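Comment thread on ticket #2218

A.B. wrote:
> Attaching the input chain for the structure job we discussed in standup.
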Amino acid sequence: MAFKFLGQRQLGKLPSRWVSTILMVAIEPVFIPPISPSCGLFTAAICSIICKKLYPSPAYPPRRPVQAILPSERGPACHMTITQLQETKKGRFSVFVDGEFLFSVHKDTFLTRQELALGRQITVEALEEIRLADELLSCKEKALTLLEYSSHSAGRLAEKLRRFYPAETVEAVIQRLTELGLLDDLDYGRRLAADLLNLRGYSLGRVRQELFRRRLDPETIQEVMDGLGDVDQIGPIVALVRKKYLQKLREPQGRGKVAAALQRRGYQYDEIREALALVLEELPDEDEEEGEE
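C.D. wrote:
> Ran it. Output below, let me know if you need it in another format.
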């Protein structure tokens, strides 16, 4: 109703809090029965998803080149004077040239670059070179921090870094980390596939989907899947049916519903049929159950 009345473009112009209120009023009576105890959580989740589509998180704006900050009459070879170097609360150092703030640099950059000294004459070209080198150092530290929290594929790590740094800087960092052995997509994919199969009981199809979602390239995914060899899929299906779907098999048309649920988990139809046949053989007939009673 809200979309029909205002339209997505009009909703996108409103503040997010207004949109959330409109959606909660419009969605809850339609999708959620009033007696449902989970209506509030469900409505909030739906509103959150829609608001994220209408209000995507903006990418972090990269720092502008020095030439773009300074007046146009100052060319790359123009000499300028560093008038102030001030430490920030985050431990970086702000660089002021001719009384104007240009950028901030990492502490390591400040200590290793002799050009950054009060009263020193420096060209615009040299300032831009310092800025790019500091940007590369900052991107490396961000990448290492992300890798400390969890393993990443090169594609997923690059995707996160591009929110903060230009694509050229990210590409250089990813290449360097790969050369150092800190990024290895094939090893990452093999470990992830083994965990998904053995610990979570994923099907081969779902493992492939998860590898793709983690931004592994198609060649690496295929190599990982080929390395898995012949994986028993019947046993995990039987165990899953015994654990979650045994009661549903006793219901009318229950076999079709269980098969559909297993297909959504990524299992193949032939594997499902064979596994269900094994489980059904173990189930007692209704006549036997009545006789026992």
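A.B. wrote:
> Thanks. Noting for the ticket: DSSP finds 16 helices and four strands in the chain.
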